[in-house]
Amino acid sequence: MALDRSNFNLFGLDLYRLYELGRQGFADLARWPLFQRLLPAEPVRLYQPDGSVTLVLPTGQAVAGAAAGAAPARAAPTSPAAVRLPDDVVLAASLRLPASASPDECAQAAALAVQGASPFPPEDTVWGHRVDTLGGATLVHYALAARSHVERHLEAQRSVHALPAAVEVWAWAGDAPLVLPGHGEHRRQRLRRQRLLKTGALAVLFLALLVALAAVPVLHRRQQAFDAQDAWHLLSGQTAPAAAAREALGRANLRLEALGRQLAGLPDPSWLLVRLTERLPDSVHLTQLDIKGNEATMRGTADNAGALIELLGNEPGISEVRPASAIVRNQVSGRETFIIQLHYRVPESAPEPARAAEPAPEQGQ
Length: 365
Prior knowledge:
- The protein is of the alpha+beta class.
- It contains eight helices and 15 strands.
- Among the domains are: 39-91 and 117-128 and 141-186, no CATH class; 269-344, Gyrase A, domain 2.
- It has a five-stranded mixed sheet with strand order 4-3-5-9-10, covered by helices on one side.
- A hairpin with a 5-residue loop joins strand 3 (44-47) and strand 4 (53-56).
């Protein structure tokens, strides 16, 4: 049953036409010299009309080393075999079609040409065609013969040679043979497909090996990266306590630096101690001295607390001297209890506090 071409239309795109173009492209690719060397055609034992046997390729080119008229030693017993029809029973011609003609269009053109040129009834006509590319055109060679003539020639060859059961029938058109279908050509086509499959499998295996060879270094580097990442995580876990201690030490250093900057801006409390020791009269007794920054609070007793406040207020570097609470006089001893607050600032020209002189060593007698 013929296929409906409308079933292969997708949004106005003829998929069957694309398939035909792809098949034609692969067919043209197979005719390239490079691919013909990679996929050499299997030789065919060709039985000539004169009774000789030659070893030829499907293109009609004789295999080098095959002696004319002798049994082809290089051909295997199972190699394909073909019988060439005499030229006097074959009608051959050719057509020129555009280069864009598909294989199906070439076959249809050859069928129409055979229908118009055959002198035999359609049921008694055996024909075949071959497509060649010449420059910017497509040449379709076709040949036809009467079925009765083909059968008569096959019988004549079988009486001379031991022909295999599946033997092809060839006719010459132009400078190369073509196959008249309906005989043993399917066996050679099957063998060629098997060779193509084997060669394709080997090519795929070769490409897979190339990909594997290219991927091994990449996978090795990838595994090295994963190992390095795992080692980094392990090392990070082992050094986490040390890193935390280092961070805590850094924070402590920052606090010490801030405290040092703060203390650098405060006056030296030793200066106030030395100054009070030098200036306070012997009648003044201090029971408590609190120093916070540049502020000091004095607690104690004196004969005259007001005179003490005045004395401290006149001292350079001491300011804002004031009683923090009321001065209380003891009725029994007559001494006054005081709490005095003051601010101090070390003058820039103030000398360093003097150290107590050490006793001189005794002179020896």
